[in-house]
Amino acid sequence: MGKSIDERPHAAIRAYLRHRGVEVLEEGWARDSGSIDPIAMDDEELVFVDTATKCGGYDMPREEPDQGRFERIAAAYLAEAEVEVTTS
């Protein structure tokens, strides 16, 4: 079976993050609250990276990031992850 259309760009993003010294913690994380790929740690900052892949056409879709979606995903991840969180 062939690779999904998302696999190559997601792998490239993870490789770029690792090249920049960012630790990739999760790949393809998905729960009822949503999915995100990858989740990484940059120094002491937890980073949620959202990617979109488009097949065909020349223009990019006009979508505004859904802040509530990111907050739900982050809350779900933090509820189960073993990541130390500090606030300032």
Q: Nutshell version of this structure?
A:
31% of the residues lie in helices and 20% in strands. The chain is built from two helices and five strands, in the order αβββββα.
What labels would you give this structure?
88 residues, alpha+beta, 2 helices, Trna Endonuclease, Chain: A, domain 1, two-stranded antiparallel sheet, three-stranded antiparallel beta sheet
Structural features, described:
- The protein is 31% helix and 20% strand.
- It is α+β, with helices and mostly antiparallel strands.
- It has one domain: Trna Endonuclease, Chain: A, domain 1, CATH 3.40.1350.10.
- The strands form two sheets. Strands 1-4-5 form a three-stranded antiparallel β-sheet, covered by helices on one side. A two-stranded antiparallel ribbon has the order 2-3.
- It starts with 6 loop residues before the first helix and ends in an 8-residue tail after the last helix.
- The mean pLDDT is 83.
* Overall radius of gyration: 14 Å
- Main pleated-sheet profile: 3 strands, antiparallel
Total domain count: 1
The total count of strands amounts to: 5
Q: Helical percent range?
A: 25-40%
Q: What order do the helices and strands follow?
A: HEEEEEH
CATH topology group: Trna Endonuclease, Chain: A, domain 1
Strand content: 15-25%
Q: In angstroms, what separates the terminal alpha carbons?
A: 48 Å
| Count of helix runs | 2
Mass-distribution shape: globular
Instruction: Give the mean pLDDT.
Output: 83
**CATH class division:** Alpha Beta
Low-confidence stretches: none
**CATH 2nd-level architecture:** 3-Layer(aba) Sandwich
Structural class: alpha+beta
Strand order of the largest sheet: 1-4-5
